[in-house]
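Predict the 3D structure for this chain.
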Amino acid sequence: LKVRVVRSSPPSSQFKATFQESYQVYKRYQMAIHKDPPDKPTINQVRLVPVSFEDPQFKSSFSQSAALFAKYQMAIHKDTPSDCGENEFTRFLCDSPLEAENAPNGPECGYGSFHQQYWLDGKIIAVGVIDILPYCVSSVYLYYDPAYSFLSLGVYSALR
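Done. Predicted structure below.
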């Protein structure tokens, strides 16, 4: 048995080189021990989209995200449709006081507010609203399609 400690933040070259293999071990573990289904979202099904109406990915997924937010709010929090329309969604989860910044020694995506979208079969099934800051990532909110609650996407998002 050989045990190696590899720096994950900032990611070392060893971490990057072994990431996929480590991820596959994690996935097998989750399926065997926690009975996660094999179709739980994978790393390739998660998109980090800057919260900006100038960003093409954000604009093209806005309506789908807003509709999912409304579905979640009504099912989980028993909100009325008027409590979770596109204006409420924008005010609550899109308007941010943070300004986007791309620092030379910062993360590739930059700093600011993001929607971490979880896609399955061409549709968004969950969105984690996060702020990426110089010394931390702050989870602002997570909403998901209640039909996929069996995937424990809140736990998955927190671990991710």
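The two ends are 27 Å apart (CA to CA).
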